[in-house]
């Protein structure tokens, strides 16, 4: 998700789109919508259509992820477990729902419905925010991220879309919010002319960093990580924001996610922790990193952590208008931009 100096060949793009559409059309489609206020009841209707032979009395439905982009329901029965994921209202503004299907990194996809997917369940336990600070589990995460960053998507050009997304999102921020409290907070904290200048300066700066473009998760918060303690491995789920992106963004964004949705930035990982994490990451990439390699990536990740604050702050400004999930997106945007400004003052090299 970022800028590119190359223009994709139109024939390659056409071929990729054809492959993607073919893969998507192979997934059964159910013409139903899961409304978040009726999450469990609507999930039952979807499961009945997808698995008509499953006996409803044998099934257990549990909401297992209280996300701020989508909602997730685990369905368990004698045949095993599957997940029903419903995207929040307006999420199509931010995410490419084709991505999870064509990347082939997810569990088996059983069906699509109007605003979500039904897919296989990964055995393990969902991470909690405090787990991210555990050295043992942090090493599993770093190792898995290094593996993700080696993935090559067949037929897809390595065109980072992060900057394209940011410019598109900026133009979607409303001039005025319907809710008067939200509007008052927006007016008190944000000057869009100044924010645009900040965005342009930050984009210009990161484009000079020469961070490798790799297949990235781009939203590696604790709820998107599953641990298998028996295998001592971590798995990543829900990569609707995934795609080719700068390596530094995936790492720096993950460090920001140590602070949780509450944005408790006292929990941002220490330099020593980050250096150890980066060492594990580089070693998993089959490198023998020098101290210079580790320190270079540390600097890179911490510049991109600034971009992460801007990116998700901008996202929050749009969600505050369109989302139907019960979450204070405007306050979240205030927290992200406040931390952006604070951290930027600590890095004199960033314009």
Automatic annotation (TrEMBL):
Gene3D superfamilies: 3.90.1200.10, Phosphorylase Kinase, domain 1 (3.30.200.20). SUPFAM superfamilies: Protein kinase-like (PK-like). It comes from the Eukaryota. One of its GO terms (cellular component) is cytoplasm. Pathway: Phospholipid metabolism; phosphatidylethanolamine biosynthesis; phosphatidylethanolamine from ethanolamine: step 1/3. It is an enzyme of class 2 (transferase). GO terms for molecular function: ethanolamine kinase activity. Its EC number is 2.7.1.82. GO terms for biological process: phosphatidylethanolamine biosynthetic process. Belongs to the choline/ethanolamine kinase family. This is ethanolamine kinase. It comes from Absidia glauca. The lineage of its organism: Eukaryota, Fungi, Fungi incertae sedis, Mucoromycota, Mucoromycotina. The gene is ABSGL_01586.1 scaffold 1725.
């Amino acid at each position: 998700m970022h800028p590119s100096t190359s223009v994709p060949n139109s024939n390659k793009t056409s071929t990729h789109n054809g492959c993607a559409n073919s893969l998507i059309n192979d997934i059964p489609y159910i013409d139903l919508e899961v409304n978040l206020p009726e999450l469990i009841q609507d999930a039952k209707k979807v499961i009945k259509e997808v698995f008509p032979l499953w006996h409803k009395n044998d099934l257990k439905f549990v909401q297992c992820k209280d996300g701020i982009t989508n909602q997730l329901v685990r369905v368990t029965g004698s045949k095993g477990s599957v997940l029903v994921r419903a995207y929040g209202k307006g999420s199509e503004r931010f995410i490419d729902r084709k991505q999870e299907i064509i990347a082939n990194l997810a569990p088996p996809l059983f069906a699509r419905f109007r605003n979500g997917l039904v897919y296989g369940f990964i055995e393990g336990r969902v991470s909690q925010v405090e787990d991210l600070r555990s050295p043992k589990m942090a090493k599993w995460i770093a190792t898995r991220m290094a593996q993700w960053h080696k993935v090559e998507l067949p037929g897809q050009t390595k065109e980072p879309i992060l900057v394209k997304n940011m410019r598109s999102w900026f133009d979607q921020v409303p001039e005025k919010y319907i809710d008067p409290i939200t509007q008052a907070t927006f007016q008190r904290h944000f000057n869009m002319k100044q924010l645009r200048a900040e965005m342009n300066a930050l984009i210009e700066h990161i484009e000079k960093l020469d961070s490798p473009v790799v297949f990235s998760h781009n939203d590696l918060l604790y709820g998107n990580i599953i641990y298998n303690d028996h295998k001592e491995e971590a798995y990543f789920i829900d990569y609707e924001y995934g795609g080719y992106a700068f390596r530094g963004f995936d790492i720096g964004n993950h460090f920001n996610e140590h602070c949780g949705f509450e944005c408790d930035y006292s929990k941002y990982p220490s330099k020593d922790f980050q250096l150890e994490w980066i060492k594990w990451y580089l070693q998993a990439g089959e490198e023998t990193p020098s101290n210079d390699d580790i320190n270079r990536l540390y600097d890179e990740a911490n510049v991109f952590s600034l971009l992460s604050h801007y990116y998700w702050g901008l996202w929050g400004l749009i969600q505050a208008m369109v989302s139907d999930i019960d979450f204070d997106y405007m306050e979240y945007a205030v927290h992200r931009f406040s931390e952006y400004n604070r951290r930027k003052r600590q890095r004199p090299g960033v314009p």
